[in-house]
Amino acid sequence: MQDDALLRYSRHILLDDIGIEGQERILRGHALVIGAGGLGSPVAMYLAAAGIGRLTLVDHDTVDLTNLQRQIAHNRASVGKPKVQSAQQTVLRLNDQVTVNALYLRADAALLDHWVPQADVVIDCCDNFTTRHAVNAACVFHSKPLVSGAAIQFDGQISVYDPRDVNSPCYACAFPPSATFEETRCSTMGVFSPLVGIIGSMQAAEALKLLAGVGRSLAGRLLMLDGRAMEWTEVRMPRNPNCSICANRGIAA
Residue 94, Cα to own-chain centre: how many angstroms? Predict the structure, then answer.
């Protein structure tokens, strides 16, 4: 690590749990972020500020004026541009030492099968169940840790699904693909602006902990936030031995 990096990341290095070795792991890390909107904005920005070595952003949408109320990686000049391009520019202004791949594409199975195995951690910041399940299936198949978050109206949730741990549930254990969930979107239901910042910042924290090898992740635990009362609820999630996605996961995975 060069002198300027030692100075830049000194507040991390001062933490006994991270130190130089943990910061170097972050600097070598590759995070795949699915979604560059409300959750993806703080995720990408905090990972960049913390010194992530490589950041791959995936989103097929463009910036709309209504996004600016909460999607802090974008500004008025970004309207009409691909979100990944706008977020890439913001990230590089924060830290030009980060390598940023901006993929203006839909996160389908083929894309995930190519990029998930290249990542050290995957962060799901999308807004629909179909993509969440596709991301989860790819993470299980390639044995990559997944940090998943969601936010709508005043309610948020976050968890970690780590297929490297045989006892850890996957996203489908908690939210089976066959179950019927009401699909809700910010465009129709609304969302409290700081809520995505709270959940997204926590996603970045969990990703950095995984990269640096610090503390205990949220694997097996789902945190749910009631933003009106600012109260957290924790739910323990066991692995489903009959899960259609991870039931056949090997002990060595």
Answer: 19
